[in-house]
Amino acid sequence: MNNSSVRLTFYGAASEVTGSKYLVESDKHKILVDCGLFQGRKDLRLLNWEPPKFNVRELDAILITHAHIDHTGYLPAVVKHGYRGPIYCTPATKELVEMMLLDSAHLQEEEALFANRHGSSKHHPAKPLYDTEDARKTIELLRTMERDKPNPVLEGVTVTPRCAGHILGATSLTLDIGGKRITFSGDIGRYDVPILPDPAPVEIGDLLLCESTYGGKLHSATDQLTELEAIVKTAITRGGPLLIPAFAVGRAQNLLYYLGQLERAGRIPELPVFVDSPMAVNATEIYKRYKHDFDEESQLMLRGGNFPLTTARTRFFRTVDESKSLNAAIGPKIIISASGMATGGRILHHLKRWLPEETSTVLLVGYQAEGTRGSSLLAGEKELKIHGAYVAVRAKMETMSSLSAHGDYSELIRWLKSSTGTPSQIKIVHGERESGNAFVGHLKESLNWNASVAQYLETVEV
Predict the structure, then answer these.
(1) Under 8 Å CB-to-CB from 30, ≥6 apart: which residues?
(2) What is the pLDDT of residue 120?
(3) What secondary structure does DSSP assign to 369-435, as a single string?
(4) CA 196 to chain centre
(5) How do residues 86-130 score in pLDDT, each as one tens digit?
(6) 219 and 190 in contact (C-beta within 8 Å)?
(7) Could you tell me which of 264, 193, 188, 265 has the C-alpha nearest to residue 223?
(8) Residue that is last in its domain, among 370, 386, 403
(9) Which residue, 72, 122, 65, is CA-closest to 97?
């Protein structure tokens, strides 16, 4: 291959966590890596409604690191604007994306319908960003690629996915294009956590894009089981429900794993555990189908006849009537429901019902982007706006950052040290500005690498 110029432009997740989109352009090809929705602050969410800042009809391919909506949720919008090319991802990611995009489209249709019924939108009529038909057209474009081998996606272009340990199917990507090598970390998971293998080393080339969600922080050293045990026991003594807003893919399954471990060890009583999220229910079914992607500890449990993602009294709810029944029953119970940042979904109805009750407990178990309801609860706000009305917050708030599916800065450094190659350029992405700047310092201190935080709409040449 000739060493021609390759350019990369940051259309999201630059000095922010959400909206991952990176456009790679060679003399022959244009490839988009990730295609996520902006979430959190209103100014970010409004970007979703702007026309794409690149010509979607000129794209030759789209590559996806993993299924989370901040990496895939803008795909139907791109298709709506005319994209008809292939979208490459791993087989597990393909199944998760199909589920999540249909759910995303349905939620947007429901929110638009609700806004039109109640007049709660400034737009008349309110419309979804995309609909179910757009999602179905997107799903038709999905193609699979194999992990741990170079996959030819275009003439002279290969991509090598490696396990990122973040959620099922999640990968880091090494893209060889125009004689250059660009490495995309994707979202790097944690080491020594259940269900999935540790992040795999990659072959770093000319340009490295590395996430920095927790680039300035270390996760709690407290044992996760011990921490969760204490929170569950405290919630039981308060006499009310334990509400856990959880990402339907990854976090919900990890919680079931840990709760099952605590129960089997006799460290907590057998409680009713409700997974009240059609997406989380479907995701757990997909996890079951990809048991071969589990780590050795989970494989050992399976060989012993135990499925690790369940408790003695777990019930999976799909219907609205089942969900509503949870807000009538009193007494200790655990409700795991999406979304993880409390931006939408069924968790809002449960929060609306139980936040005013002093007997209730809310456990936040993941990253809470600025401007989300989850970040407001984390900040100790005494009122929360839900469905156009303010709800008093009297419930006890708990947090567990150790359950995050993102590695902290020490784990990111560990992953980079395990990989081969020294990049000529390093751009820090997928982190708030403060986090990204902190990680730049850690890279300099630990590896003597010079890096800079990516800026929105910035272009670099490789």
Answers:
(1) 23, 24, 54, 58, 59, 60
(2) 67
(3) -TTSHHHHHHTT-SEEEETTEEEE--SEEEE-GGG-SS-BHHHHHHHHHHSB---SEEEEESS-HHH
(4) 15
(5) 999 999 999 999 999 998 998 889 888 878 887 766 777 889 999
(6) yes
(7) 193
(8) 403
(9) 72
Q: What is the pTM of this model?
A: 0.90
In a domain, 410, yes or no: yes
Expressed as residue numbers, the domain containing 58 is: 7-217+405-461
pLDDT of residue 274: 98
Q: How far is CA 383 from the centre of its chain?
A: 26
447 class by beta-carbon count within 10 Å (0-12 exposed, 13-18 middle, 19+ buried): middle
End-to-end CA distance of the chain: 15
Dihedral in degrees, nearest 10, Cα atoms 294, 300, 301, 302 = 70
Residues 424 and 209 sit within 8 Å (Cβ to Cβ): no
Give dist(CA 395, CA 243) in Å, integer.
10
Q: Which amino acid belongs to residue 174?
A: T
Residue 37 and residue 173 share a domain: yes
Residue pair 292/273 in contact by the 8 Å Cβ criterion: no
